[in-house]
Amino acid sequence: MSAQTSRVPSHIRLTSHSGGPDAPPLVWGAPTAAERGPVIGTTGTRAHRNVIGTHSGSYSVYRALAVASGALSREHRADLTNTSPTDVVGPYPQWGDPAAIVSLDPWGAAVADVFAPQIAAGADIRPTIAVTKAHVQLPEIAEAIAKGRLRPDGRVLTDGGAAVVTKAAVEPVWHLPGVAARFGCSEADLRRVLFEETGGMYPELVTRGDLEVFLPPIGGQTLYIFGDPRALSDPSVELTARVHDECNGSDVFGSDICTCRPYLTHAIEECIAGTQRGGVGLVAYSRKEGRALGEVTKFLVYNARKRQLGGDTADQYFARTECVAGVQDMRFQELMPDVLHWLGITRIHRLVSMSNMKYDAITGSGIEVGERVNIPDELIPADARVEIDAKMAAGYFTPGEVPDADALRNTVGRGLSG
Ligand SMILES: [Zn+2]
């Protein structure tokens, strides 16, 4: 045995059949933290575990690498001194409705407070949500100031052009019966498919029907809140909101094949302006890269679009994705409204999105939506016309004309060598 592998015990520590007598009960949707109980996904004291999977979403795999390499002790416990949220969120009535929130732990930011006695007694209970403050600076906001569309007020927007925000990072915590209900399948089928399609990664999905909560190894969400976070739950305060799905190529690197970054920065501008009017703003950013298909699939689709006969036309936009991925979209907005309910939101006055899927999910979950704000035409990159026209024809909201079949054939993007 090498020095590397000798660091870990020689026996495999299975979780699949050991019902932990010391695991505290977890009653999803119970009205108080004490009645609900803590989410314990520790890999340390196995008997305490009351969920399937472990913390940190996809980063749990890196944590395993850190243990395997000897960089991290598996016994390490987080010192939560001074880590508490900068702003208290909730509790809201939605937290006590087991069907309103099924994909995050509403008490996830408050564990160091609400489960302090259990932590003091040695339980490894970790926050799944963290709330902090930030200043965000974007060239598009600097341009909006230069052109006079936005004005620094020293409160929402500093003299240096930075937007003052509260931001929250949210890790996924799934209540499997609730997730199954959202997708209209049985819990047994959901568990079996999750097990099989991850290559059998979590045997407890099929062996431990008593464990109803799963910490899936996927990306989470980040919330950027403009103005007072508590005002988000007040339907009389104007709320400007965008729910945005990650598109690294556009969001970060400015790739011009889609409208993601310009729409995102437009939403941030609208959030700042709305907050300066006395409202509040929210951008909820979900790690669902490339319609949750991932970047490899996304780039394959780009090539297939641009190499097809007749070039990259809007009428073939969805077909090319479906050819490569088998579906048009894997984002499935069914779980997206949970984070809005965590924030206590009951009304969005201005939804900065044209997506009918997002709109339907939000309104279907009981949140009222007033105005829908489209991306201004002048912000659409030329090569992204293909995408936006295809989406409008497929049902995306537009205050203007919906492109017909002829128009879609005539919307052609740049070639690969252009
Ligand atoms: Zn994009």
Overview of the structural elements:
With 418 residues, the chain is of the alpha/beta class. The protein has a domain at 19-72 and 82-122 and 172-214. The chain contains 17 helices and ten strands. β9 (347-351), α15 and β10 (368-372) form a beta-alpha-beta unit. α6 packs across α7 (187-197) and α12 packs across α13. The protein is globular and about 65 Å long. Residues 1-6 have low confidence and may be disordered. The structure holds zinc ion. Residues 247, 250, 258, 260 line the site of zinc ion.
Sequence of secondary-structure elements: HEHHHEHEEHHHEEEHHEHHHHEHEHH
Low-confidence stretches: 1-6
Q: What small molecules accompany the polymer chains? A: zinc ion
Task: Give the oligomeric state of the chains in this entry, treating copies of one chain as homo and distinct chains as hetero.
Answer: single chain
Estimated share of beta-strand residues: 5-15%
Please tell me how large the radius of gyration is: 23 Å
Distance between the termini: 56 Å
Name some characteristics of this structure.
binds zinc ion, GTP cyclohydrolase II activity, 418 residues, 3-stranded mixed beta sheet, alpha/beta, RibA-like_sf
Quick rundown:
By secondary structure, the protein is an alpha/beta fold.
Task: Compile the SSE list and pairings.
Elements: H1 33-36, E1 52-53, H2 60-68, H3 111-114, H4 116-120, E2 129-136, H5 139-146, E3 163-170, E4 174-175, H6 176-183, H7 187-197, H8 204-207, E5 213-215, E6 221-226, E7 239-245, H9 248-251, H10 260-276, E8 280-286, H11 289-292, H12 295-307, H13 317-325, H14 338-342, E9 347-351, H15 356-364, E10 368-372, H16 385-393, H17 405-410
Parallel strand pairs: 1-5, 7-8, 7-9, 9-10
Antiparallel strand pairs: 2-3, 3-6, 4-5, 6-8
Helix pairs in contact: 6-7, 12-13
The structure holds zinc ion.
Zinc ion is lined by residues 247, 250, 258, 260.
